[in-house]
Amino acid sequence: MQNTTSIQDHLAKVYALWLREFKVFLRERSRLVASTFTPILWLFVIGSGLGSAAPSELPPGVDYQQFIFPGIVSMSIIFTSVFYGSYIIWDRKFDFLKSVMVAPVSRATVFVGKTLGGMTNSLIQAAILIAIGVAIGIPFTPLSLAQAAAVVLLMSFGLTSLGLALGSYMYSLEGFQMIVSFVVFPLFFLSGALFPLDNLPEWLSVLTAADPATYGVDALRNLTLGTGTYGVELDLAILVGYTAALGAFGVYSFAKMKAV
Amino acid sequence: MIKIRSLVKKYGNHIAVDNLTLDINENEVFGLLGSNGAGKTTTIHMLATLLKPSSGGATVNGYDIVCQPAKVRSSIGIVFQAPSSDDMLTGYENLQLHSMLYSIPRHTRKQRIDEVLNLVGLTERRHDQVKTYSGGMRRRLEIARGLLHKPKVMFLDEPTLGLDPASRETMWKYIQRLVREEKMTVILTTHYMEEADILCDRIGIIDKGRIVALDTPKGLKAGLGGDIIRIKTRNNPDKISQLDFVHKVEQNDGFLVISVNNAKRDLPMLLRHVDADIAEFASPTLNDVFIHLTGRNIKEEPEGGFAEKYAKYD
Description:
Order of helices and strands of chain B: EEEHEEHEHHHEHEHEEHEHEEHEHH
Number of strands of chain A: 0
Low-confidence stretches of chain A: none
Oligomer: heterodimer
Mean pLDDT of chain B: 87
Shape of chain B: elongated
Distance between the termini of chain B: 35 Å
CATH topology of the largest domain in chain B: Rossmann fold
Radius of gyration of chain B: 22 Å
Order of helices and strands of chain A: HHHHHHHHHHH
Number of helices of chain A: 11
Strand content of chain B: 25-35%
Helix content of chain A: over 70%
Radius of gyration of chain A: 19 Å
Distance between the termini of chain A: 27 Å
Mean pLDDT of chain A: 91
Number of strands of chain B: 14
Number of domains of chain A: 1
Low-confidence stretches of chain B: 300-314
Structural class of chain B: alpha/beta
CATH superfamily of the largest domain in chain B: P-loop containing nucleotide triphosphate hydrolases
Number of helices of chain B: 12
């Protein structure tokens, strides 16, 4: 019998599960095209359309399209990551999950493998959007690029965990639609992706402050445009906290998930 | 190899598995035979650590299914009722994934994958995506996957469900081959009588979560005693059961099923006493055993018709 508790063995299993997610991702290109197209549409249509109405509160020297760019990158992460939770429902529907659960693999390993798959997905999409950002004049340096990648990974880890955790309690894809209305859109709209946070009415600023995505958007805005509400250190600290909590929620949910 | 003790699974008021006690020996092919909903799959899921028993317990390969799930999982291979491979991956990639999940050392991985692919006859299609496979091929890939880590025990949950007759016979061939070449204990659930008859060393007939009979296929059929005559008649069955050469009369599907010692001799005698529209006779099949034990016909789906035809005219 092999020693199934060693770290190396554990990592090999995570790698195997991640590799499966990645291969499927590469083979379903329509998925990538569809989920990249929407943010681009937002960036150019909403960015230019609302931009021409010239909101007054923007930081100096930044036009609306540039202003919402970090928000649109975040939007792509929010949608892709939380939606990734629906793949656990597919896995269950096609009994793939059962075949993994009957193998000598811990639930935490299954969770980590799946989450890394979702993060890879989000990172690739963010990379495409950032390339477009460079094209529309967002000033990136190698350092700010690396920092932005770290923020993207943190955000997508937290939100993929959230999506997978919620998906683990659901048995139908129809049920998951509810998540979209009650989780994905609020996360996006309250994050300040589309508007500055500085002069909001009291009730709205309470809600935006509670939204984990707010700190991702703000961190990316700090890093790319040099302007933000909280400062990048505070953003990162809060993001790390949220991410750890959501990751724990994910591990807990997977451990409780019924196998059949 | 497997010891099941007073195993119970309840869903609310419904008892899916009812106080099941059973021993399965090393290297035997054991069949759990029963109609849909009899508790076969629930039993398999509990033995495979996917479901927690409500009470009672079992050991598989000496490991407790509740306390030592990881050890049990390393000891077993399982083919689920519905194929569970990833459609988007190739057959080879699916096996690669699972060989890593079962911690098969890197240097033996490729060789073992080639071995099991060859065993189930999928070597040529190994680099095609599973979504291009036929139903029978998918099922065979599942078997290959279950064999990867050389398990001590292999569970086959309705391995031929939904396959056409030709694929089913191919499947039997592969199952017989794996029993011969891989030397393992096989637990097979099925509701196809002739499948159990052909493949199994011993059969447990399960009905409403209980084992109602346990013997070799031969023993079960011998237990019925003699031959079976089936007739369609408007006569009173009581009159027939009073005949001295008749052991037993049961009704099924509008037919009277009459147990006698020797149908060739007794059928002409019987026809002197009753007016039959249709008369036929046969040595008992497992289907007759099942009807005898449960009072019901096992087949619920049209495919069962094939099985019965087979049994009648061979």
